[in-house]
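User: These chains co-purify. Model them together.
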Amino acid sequence: MSHPPRHSSMLSISNNVQTAATPSEKPLPPTQLQATSQTPPGLRVPSNRKTIYDRHLNRTRNGELSRASFAFLFGEMVTYAQRRVTGIQDLERRLNEQGYPLGLRLLDLLFYRTTSSTSSSALSSSSTSASPPNRPLRILPLLHLIHGPLWRQLFNRSADALEHSISPDTPNEYMITDNDPLVNTYISVPKEMNQLSCAAFVAGIIEGVCDGCGFEAKVSAHNQPSELWPSRTIFLLRFGDSVMEREKVLERAGVK
Amino acid sequence: MPVYSLIIINKAGGLVYQREFQPGLRKLSTNDYLVLAGTFHGVHAITRSITPKIPNQNAVSVTSSTTQTPTPTTTAAAAAAASPSSTSVLSPSSTSIPTPTPTPTPLSTTSTTTPALPPSTSTPSNATYTYPIPNLPLSGLETLESDKFTLTCFQTLTGTKFLLFTDPQMANIEGIMKTVYELYADYVMKNPFYQLEMPVRCEAFERGVGGFLRARG
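Assistant: Joint model of the two components:
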């Protein structure tokens, strides 16, 4: 009874989660798995045994991507998000959720690349003495990070405007304007859905970046077409109360 | 030298887009435009089927001495290479290709050595003629000229037809057509809210086409 029954080994080949879920059965060694099935489950490894994780993170730093393939991919993402939604709000929420994890991850990559560009040798020699990453503590540096480096990393240019809400009732609202968001370049929203902005995806990215920095925020995208810029979009950032409280404390303490 | 009007017809012959770029043109009703699109689609298909076939005279005289077998490889090699006048150049290379037929019988028929048919119709049995432009698949009506306007038709690989009504004096219609096609590929085909084969209602496409064609007019 040392060998598991045949059908269980078949199951473990077709679905790797199955073996993890049944710890009582002895899982087959990975070599045997590969021998029985031509396509091993999980991560596909190229012939030279180098995965995407073996590459240097800065390798694709200045890499260029096809705008058309991005447009098609994003179009499919919108189509996918559109399935089984109840309304425009729901669709925007889904797009936001697609962008959020991207923002969290991009933040790490952004810090890694900004520090390694200034002191790439120091990072490899000693990790402790390397210059501390420019992690923002206050709201304004965070907004500058989003407006400048993040936008440059994503779209190869800075955002077009950064504003603070002038209303005294909403001091926690900030606005970032993009005159021609890349995601909306080829998208024409039908008339009956004209509230929808597919840049909710980018809003999700921003939200992920803010949350990753420890600034709880809600970010939404709004169309603000002008004569010159028909697809001008405003990203509205609403920071949470805890963030605003901390901001006041830090201001008194004189932290920049 | 303006562009008067643009019509886009889908592969089933339905009108998906129609817009005028000059004021003062006589208006047609929507139904008339639909009929026009369907009629043009039919006429286009007819013109495609009545493309004249030219009997392949020179192929007989040039290649009467060569011996070949009617195999698909030779015709394919010949069709890929060049125009019908260059059959004599082809014969050494085609004899060097090992043919699948075990015993190549010496034949001197005209039908076997006629190359350069359009790929869609390259069967050895009816290879005694060629089309005006060899190596190009059959298309249909391309331009229609009158003293008031010129109609240019461009058919994409997927069967969508772009019809451009322009001033007879207008030059470089091909370039305009290419830009319109690019705008269509960008703002219509990359729009997730556009349903294929349905009427085009894309704001960005309207803007792009309007901006481009008005500037020409």
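The first strand of chain A starts at residue 161 and ends at 164.
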